[in-house]
Design goal:
Strand content: 15-25%
Number of strands: 8
Distance between the termini: 58 Å
CATH architecture of the largest domain: 3-Layer(aba) Sandwich
Order of helices and strands: HHEHHHEEEHEHEEHEH
Largest sheet: 8 strands, mixed
Number of domains: 2
Radius of gyration: 20 Å
CATH topology of the largest domain: Aminopeptidase
């Protein structure tokens, strides 16, 4: 017999103790597996390092536009360099674990254009985490006065290409890369495409900022 059923069976016994326990249990069940997006700052350094060191070589390579077998020190330094103004970071957490990382980077705090990056952990790909992060990046960009988001992805990254196909316009294509621009007003004003669901592995999904910003 679960807590809620026990209370219904004995409504006059232990009300003050049982009701909070029942509500807490129900909330825990309902929140299990949900993805929550929040801002990342210095308090999340350990989460960010664990996230990036846990990425597969394929996802790392797509994230940083260079062949990677392990996370390099300069890449980790960049991942930890968010300042909340010129380099904004958003994290997608599932059951307390960082499973998605979104970045918005601009050359100065009042610049109207920013580069974006979205990376999803290998075990969390294919379930809308990247789409939700992109939507939230659009909302944050609008609040920060950013009007356009620039993205660069690899042309063989099918999931990333699909993610941006309906949201941005291609500016250039070559050397295995595709660069495009997203209008923030359209992105932030759209309904979030995120769908909840169980997470299963689907390797290699990543949307990347340009190499120049990373180095």
């Amino acid at each position: 017999m679960d807590i809620a059923t026990e209370y219904r069976s004995h409504p006059g016994q232990g009300r003050s103790r049982t009701v909070p326990r029942a509500l807490a249990a129900l909330r825990a069940v309902r929140s299990r597996g949900r993805v929550i997006v929040r801002s990342l700052d210095a308090r999340h350094h350990a989460d960010i390092e664990a996230f990036y060191t846990g990425l597969s070589p394929q996802t790392l390579s797509r994230r940083f536009h260079t062949p990677c077998t392990v996370l390099r020190p300069y890449q980790l330094r960049f991942a930890l360099s968010m300042d909340g103004t010129e380099h904004i970071a958003l994290g997608a957490f599932r059951d307390g674990e960082l499973v998605g990382d979104g970045r918005l980077v601009r050359v100065r705090s009042d610049a109207p254009t920013a580069e974006i990056a979205v990376t999803v952990a290998d075990g969390a790909q294919g379930h809308g985490v990247g789409a939700r992060l992109l939507h939230r990046i659009g909302e944050r960009a609008r609040r920060e006065g950013v009007t356009h988001l620039v993205y660069t992805i690899q042309t063989d990254n099918d999931a990333a290409v699909r993610l941006f196909a309906a949201r941005g316009r291609t500016q250039s294509r070559g050397s295995g890369q595709l660069t495009g621009v997203i209008d923030v007003a359209a992105l932030a004003g759209s309904q979030s495409p995120y769908r909840a669901g169980p997470i299963a592995a689907r390797p290699g999904t990543s949307i990347n900022p340009t190499t120049e910003i990373l180095k």
